[in-house]
Design a protein that fits this description.
Elements (H helix, E strand, L loop, with lengths): L3 E4 L3 H11 L5 H8 L3 E5 L3 H10 L7 H17 E4 L7 H6 L5 E3 L5 H10 L4 E3 L4 H4 L5 E5 L7 H9 L4 E5 L6 H11 L6 E6 L16 H12 L3 E6 L9 E3 L3 E4 L20 E7 L5
Parallel strand pairs: 1-2, 1-4, 2-3, 4-5, 7-8, 8-9
Antiparallel strand pairs: 6-12, 7-10, 10-11, 11-12
Helix pairs in contact: 9-10
Length: 286
């Protein structure tokens, strides 16, 4: 999400063939996933000329031609990222000057992909069999195994990229493990606005009956503010056991049991089964 992608100019032909020959095709999912990213074009618009030429290979009488052409052109008008390609134009050169160097070319054969990766080892090629591994579709799930380690900042990175805000819904965010994990997530970049919704720690007695310590939490909040983020902490009006979420501008991530369910090294501590990190298009408002 929010990556700079270079689409093969023959993608329309691939989608058309999939529509005709594969009743279980994932065209809609692929298009939806592409739409959550930015699309590279060259500033001389040679890429767009090649893209339009590929539409001419599709039977003009088929409805999908007009649908694809209208949708993709609208998408490029909203999501295009112009790049300067020196020398003769090629899609690979265009991809190589992009930030993320991701080439979406599901129609390419294995020998073609091997040659691309040999010449340009930093480019990631999205083949037909790995496109949804490289481009995470929404909704997206990751099953959590007790005792396994999960690098949450790295896992969240594709969905956090470009977000100006970070939201946290976790009633028990003051617990030391939760604070440590929040630190690793929130400190990855400087967000303009960070909003945390939680229980009032003054109303949460610790195991020994005393008020829980907020020293680590307060220290983290001070650090985030010192880096330039506007941080707001919102308390529930009464103690609640709400579901836990991390929120970015466009994505909400459900975290079973909250950040306290992972130790400071990212080990998932819950002994139960059926737990998932769930990534969805954001609907929650703070």
């Amino acid at each position: 999400m929010n990556q700079e992608l270079t689409l093969s100019s023959r993608l329309p032909v691939y989608l058309y063939i999939e529509q005709v020959n594969n009743m279980f095709n994932r065209n809609r999912e692929l298009i939806d996933t592409i739409s959550t990213n930015f699309l590279c074009i060259d500033d001389q618009r040679e890429y767009m000329r090649q893209l339009m030429a590929s539409f001419e290979e599709i039977d003009a009488s088929t409805p999908i031609k007009k649908q694809l052409e209208a949708y993709l052109l609208d998408l490029f008008s909203k999501k295009a990222r112009p790049k300067t390609v020196k020398g003769d134009f090629s899609e690979i050169k265009l991809c190589n000057v992009s930030k993320d160097r991701v080439y979406v070319a599901p129609e390419k054969s294995d020998p073609e992909i091997e040659e691309i990766t040999r010449q340009y080892p930093k480019i990631t090629v999205c083949r037909a069999d790995n496109v949804f591994e490289v481009l995470k579709p929404i909704p997206y799930e990751i099953g959590l195994t007790p005792g396994s380690t999960y690098n949450l900042p790295t896992i969240f990175a594709p969905f956090a990229k470009g977000s100006k805000s970070l939201g946290v819904i976790d009633p028990y965010i003051h617990n030391h493990r939760a604070v440590a994990n929040l630190d690793s997530i929130a400190s990855r970049t400087v967000y303009e606005k960070i909003t945390i919704k939680c229980n009032d720690p003054a109303k949460l007695p610790s195991k020994d009956g005393k008020q829980i310590s907020t020293v680590r939490f307060d220290t983290l909040i001070a650090k985030l503010r010192s880096r330039g983020s506007q941080v707001e902490v919102i308390y529930y009006d009464r103690i609640k056991h709400k579901e836990r979420f991390i929120l970015y501008d466009e994505v909400e991530i459900y975290i079973p049991g909250g950040l306290d369910n992972f130790d400071e090294n990212g080990v998932f501590l819950n002994d139960g089964e059926g737990f998932y990190l769930i990534f969805r298009k954001r609907k929650i408002k703070l």
